[in-house]
Amino acid sequence: MKNQPKSAYVHIPFCTQICYYCDFAKVFIKNQPVDAYVATLLGEFELAEISELETLYIGGGTPTALSAAQLDRLLAGLTQNLALEKLQEFTVEANPGDLTDEKIAVLKKNHVNRVSLGVQTFNDKLLKKIGRSHTSQDVFDTITKLRAAGFDNITIDLIYALPSQTLADVKRDIEILLQLDLPHVALYSLILENHTIFMNKMRRGKLDLPDEEADFEMYNAIIDCLEKAGYAHYEISNFGKEGYESKHNLMYWQNAEYYGFGAGASGYVNGVRYKNHGPIHHYLETIDKKVTQEKLSQKEQMEEELFLGLRKKSGVNTQAFTEKFGQDFDKIYGQTVSTLIDKKLLERSHDSIFMTRQGLMLGNDVFEAFLLD
Ligand code: SF4
What we know:
The protein is of the alpha/beta class. It folds into 2 domains: 7-253, Alpha-Beta Horseshoe (pyruvate-formate lyase- activating enzyme), CATH 3.80.30.20; 312-373, Arc Repressor Mutant, subunit A (Orthogonal Bundle), CATH 1.10.10. Helices cover 41% and strands 21% of the residues. α2 (68-79) runs parallel beside α3 and α6 (167-180) runs parallel beside α8. The radius of gyration is 21 Å and the shape is globular. The chain starts with 6 loop residues before the first strand and ends with a helix. Iron/sulfur cluster is lined by residues 15, 17-19, 22, 24, 26, 60-62, 95, 118. It comes from Pseudolactococcus hodotermopsidis.
């Protein structure tokens, strides 16, 4: 399977709550055809005839919104034909409130070795304000149970710049995170998306969000605290202890190919980016699950290589870029790189270009500069 992707993403679009900021492809789980969905998804996976994967990532939605029996069927079905010795990282996203002992046992039994918890904040008032149904105590209990079951590779997602959140609140979240001594964390600034409850509130003037300056201040404080505590800031939003960087996510940022399964999932196979039908009934009813397929031009591939690669702290190796695309990197981008270095958004060392702290904060400005005419 030389040219086949070594990674797969599986989408579970069900949630037991609908968070006020979320625009992911998901629906409230009640009365949804979950069993039919799992069966269809396993059928889609089987058709791809995959025998080896290095990383497998089950995201959502909330995979742990499934019952223990449904989760077991899904995970066992996905792994039954895989060469497990090749599977280095098998991640399942989980909601702290959903993870019962039974579900944790299902994860363990089915070779999951990394759990990603959607924590968002340890502040119970803020959790309520953003529509989450778990509490900080649920998070602590879940982490204790996961560790007792033998999971040491636990990552959590936190969000900052939440409504009315202060710098002191963010620092408090980081303090608690450090006390938990987890090997990995991803921190995202709240982004207001269309068609969310928060966007509606904002339009009605009822959302008190920190301004851009406060957002930068929070991001700076997060990086300082986590780096001081021994976490490598290896991607714009991701921090890991040595050896715990996410292999699956690094695969995306290295612009590698991967399968995507499930409603609304995206994949990248044989130079084609595709997206599956999003609405669950469309996904269930169509034979060909893909709704869009786009063969990328070389220009698009080069742009993606830079946008994705520059997200990593280590940036992009210009020599490898030249070899991969058969085009001299400096001939195409030399001027852009010089301009960004003058603006202190980019640095260059030997064959690598990478973003400065300022560049990481203003990532979109950097990415835009690399768009080709
Ligand atoms: S943030 Fe996660 S749990 Fe909340 S609605 Fe979105 S997908 Fe569901």
